[in-house]
Amino acid sequence: MKIFRFILPLSLGLTLHAENLKKVEDFNAAAAKANAVLTLPDWPQAPEAVDAMMKNAIDTANKALDQIGAQDLSKVTFKSTVVALDDLGWQASNAANKAVVTKESNTDPKVREAAENAVKTFQDWAVGIDYREDVYKALKAFANTKPKLTGEDKKLYDETMRDYRRAGLDLPPDKRKEVEDLRKQLAKLGTDFDTNIVNAKAPLVFTKAELDGVPDSFLEAPGVKNPQTAPPNKNDLPDTLTATYTVLANVTWHYNTVEDNAKNEATRKKLYIARDSLAKDTNRTVLNQMIALRNKIALRLSYKSWDDYQTEIKMAKNGAGAKSYIDNLTKGIQPKFAAEVAEMQKMKAEDIHDPNAKIGVWDWRYYSNQIKKQKYNVDTEALRDFFPFQKVVEGMFNIYQSIFGLKFEQIDAPYKWIPDLQLYIVTDSASGEPLGMFYLDMFPRDGKFNHFAEFGIISGKQLADGNYQRPVCALLCNFPPPSADKPSLMTHSDVEVLFHEFGHCLHEITTRAKYGRFGGTHVPGDFVEAPSQMLQNWVWDKKVLDTFAADYRDPSKKIPGDIIQKMNDAKTATAGVFYRRQFAFASLDLAMHDVHPEKADWDCVNISNPVLEKVFLPIDPSTTFVTYFGHMNGYDAGYYGYAWADAIAADMGTVFEKAPQGYLDKQAGMKLRKEIYEQGDGRDVAVSIEKFLGRKQSVEPFLKKIGVKGGDKKKAPAGPSKEQQ
Ligand SMILES: [Zn+2]
C-alpha cells in the first residue's frame, strides 16, 4: 500500500510543495478583521494521547455540568443554563469528532484502537448527561422564569427542554426510572439485532449451468469457485461441467452480481429466499421485543406511537406526515412503476415461454439490468478516461468556488497522518473572510474507513467573547489509486460521490449558526442529505461536464452529447422500480412503528411482509425481509427520510435549472449558500427551503425527474412544519 504515497505526488502534478504553501497563521489577520477564529485540530498521535484527549474533554465537560448544577437557582440565566450546556456539548463533541476521524484514518492500529475506545467512552458518557438531576433542576428553574426569547435563542431553549422531556425527565421519578430502564433494554437489544445481522451467513452452492449469465470475473473471484475434489474415476467430466461455486447470500456484492445476471429464475429465487431469510431465527424475536419496547417508551412519554416520537424532531414532525408523504409519492409513481413492470413481464414471458409470467422480488434486478444493457448500452469503464482524479477535483473546485462565491487555497498541514494528506482553507471570495478548513484523504489503504464520507471535526459556533469559531472538516474517500502507467481514473459514479460529499463539506464550512447544536450539517435527519443529493445533478449535465471532463490522453476530447443522454436515459429507465422498493421499505418501517395497543400481540414480519408485497412486488411467503434490515436499529421510523430528502433535492434543483446559467448559476449558488448552508439548523429548515425556493415545496419536480411525465399535479403533502400550510 505504501507505493501509493510515492506515486501520488507525481500524479498530482499541481500539488504544491510544502515550502510554497501558506500557513494557517497567514490568515489570522483576515480572520481577526472578520471576528473569526481559525483553529487547526491538535491531533493525538499516540494511544496515550487519544486516551488523555478524551479523558480531558470529559473532565472539562463534567466540571461545566457541576457548575450548572451547583448554581443558585434564583439567579439562573439563559447563559448559565441553556448556552452553558451548548458550550460544553460542543467542546466535548469536538474531541469525540477528532477521535472518530483518528479511528477511521490513522495508520497505526494501536492509535485506531485507542480512538475506538475513546468513541465508546464518549457515547456512554453522553447518554448519562440526560439524567443529571442537578443540571435538569437548573434548566427547569430557568424555564420557570418564563423567558422571552426569540429566533435562534428560542429554538435552542425549546429544543434543549424538548430533549429533557423526550428522555422522560419531567415524569414522576418512578415513571422516569421506567423510561430510563426501557431505553437501556432497547439499546441492548439493538446491539443484539446488529450482531445477529453480522453473524448471519447463507452460503449456497451452484453449478456453472445454474449460474449461466453471471460474469466470469465473479465466478473466478477468490472464494467463489470451489476446489475440485479428486476425480472419482478416469472418465471424469471436464472441469466446466463439474465445477461448483459458492455464493454467499449475506455478502451484498455476491448477491447483487448473481441477481443482476443469472438467467435462471430458480437460481435467482433460491438466492433471494436465502437472503431475505437471514437472521430469521434470531432477529424475529429480537425485533418484536424492540418494537414493543419502543411502543412502550412512546406511550410512557405520551406519544401515541414510536413514529410520532422519532419524527417529532425531524421535518416530518409526526408519523402521519411522513406516511402521507410516502403514500403520495407511491401513488404518484404508480404509472411509471406499472409501465416498467409490464416491460419486464413481457421480457420474462418470452424468456420462459409463459405469457402469464409475473415479476417477483427475485426478478427485478435481472430485468432492470437487461433493460439497461439492451436499450442503453453505455460503457462505464471507457468513461473513466474522461475523469482523471486531479482534473475532476480541480473542476469541481472551480464550479463550487464560482457559484458559491468562495476561494479554496491549499495550505500547509502541520500534522499529516499520511504524507499526501491535503489541507485547504476556504475564504469568501468577495471579502477575503476566512470561513474554515478541510482535509482531503482520498485514497484507500489498509485499516482506513472503507467508504466515502465527510466528517465534521470542529463545528462552527459563536464563542463567549463574540468571535466566531470557524469549522474544520475532512473528506475520507477511497477513489481508485493511480497505477504505474495511468493517473487515478474515476468512474462516473465516483465523480458523483465526490460532488455529493464535498457538498456536505461546504454545508459544514460556510455555516453562520450561532450555536454548536445548529452548526453546518447538524440539521434534521430527513433533510441533511438533500443539498448534496441535489449537487449530484451537476455530473449528469453536459455543460457542467464539459468544464472539466476530458480524455486524459487528449484533453481536446469531451464526452459526446449522445453518451451523456444515454446515461441519463438509462438512469430513469428503471427509476420506477428502484423508488417503489424504497417507498416499500419506508412504508413497512412506518407501519411497524405506527400505533399499537400495548397489550396486543403483533409481529414484525406479519406487519411488514404484506406492505412489501403491496407497495413493491410479490414475495415468497417464507421470507422475513425485516430480520436482516439493518436500518431497523438506528433508522427506525426514519427510513422515509431518504425519499423525503430526494424529493426536496429535486425541488431545490429547479432553482438552478430555471436560472440563466443552469447548474453554473452564481445567483442561485449564492442563494443556496445564504438560505441553506449558512443557516444550518439555526432556523427551521422548512423555512430555509421555502426561502431558497421562493415558493412552497412541491413533489412535482421529483416525479418529473424520475420520469413520471409532467409530474403529479398535487402539491407536497403536509410534511413540513405547521406554519407553512
Ligand atoms: Zn451524504
Structure description:
The chain is an alpha+beta fold and 725 residues long. It contains 29 helices and ten strands. It has helices at residues 3-11, 28-33, 47-70, 79-105, 109-129, 133-144, 151-166, 173-199, 216-219, 239-242, 252-261, 265-275, 280-300, 306-311, 319-332, 334-352, 364-375, 380-383, 389-404, 492-509, 530-535, 542-545, 561-573, 575-592, 604-615, 640-657, 666-677, 685-693, 700-705; strands at 36-37, 203-207, 244-248, 406-411, 422-428, 434-441, 453-458, 461-462, 468-469, 472-476. The strands form three sheets. A five-stranded mixed sheet has the order 4-5-6-10-7, with helices on both faces. A hairpin with a 5-residue loop joins β8 (461-462) and β9 (468-469). α24 (575-592) packs across α26 (640-657). The longest helix is centred in the first third of the chain and has 27 residues, at 79-105. The model is unreliable at 1-16 and 711-725 (pLDDT under 50). The protein binds zinc ion. Residues 500, 504, 529, 532 line the site of zinc ion.
Summarize the topology:
Elements: H1 3-11, H2 28-33, E1 36-37, H3 47-70, H4 79-105, H5 109-129, H6 133-144, H7 151-166, H8 173-199, E2 203-207, H9 216-219, H10 239-242, E3 244-248, H11 252-261, H12 265-275, H13 280-300, H14 306-311, H15 319-332, H16 334-352, H17 364-375, H18 380-383, H19 389-404, E4 406-411, E5 422-428, E6 434-441, E7 453-458, E8 461-462, E9 468-469, E10 472-476, H20 492-509, H21 530-535, H22 542-545, H23 561-573, H24 575-592, H25 604-615, H26 640-657, H27 666-677, H28 685-693, H29 700-705
Parallel strand pairs: 1-9, 6-10
Antiparallel strand pairs: 2-3, 4-5, 5-6, 7-10, 8-9
The chain binds zinc ion.
Zinc ion (ZN) is lined by residues 500, 504, 529, 532.
